[in-house]
What we know:
This protein is mostly beta strands.
Amino acid sequence: xxxxxxxxxxxxxxxxxxxxxxxxxxxxxxxxxxxxxxxxxxxxxxxxxxxxxxxxxxxxxxxxxxxxxxxxxxxxxxxxxxxxxxxxxxxxxxxxxxxxxxxxxxxxxxxxxxxxxxxxxxxxxxxxxxxxxxxxxxxxxxxxxxxxxxxxxxxxxxxxxxxxxxxxxxxxxxxxxxxxxxxxxxxx
Length: 188
């Protein structure tokens, strides 16, 4: 019995425990670029991370979660300040993201497959208090992770200008899917 106990103790000393490490998001150098399209064109801009972290195990991505500051939304493609402010104000209104009532959005990673530098990520995305599953690919480069989420806004009660809910929109129709391209930097 004593030999078995000694063998088990030796095993645990030799084989290192591998538990997940939490890497904090560098909110200043991490970015989210949004792209929304309509029949007559498209608009782009930025949204800032409020906080976040990734879980790593043996240098592999295994989980994480992020909070996005919806009040930080900007538009980068309209140079006229008045039109730019009008679009940003509309995006912050209840027609779109209702940031007065819902100042943050949240992503929780629930499953990761793949290894080394390419991952398929599944998670739960919460916008305007509504949560739905989402899947996307992520590429790791050093301490940075890049990827793109394609989000159906109508699942999150963002219906303004949607052909699913309104008829005869013509060239005023806004496509339901929008893109969030991200580059996340974490602490070393």
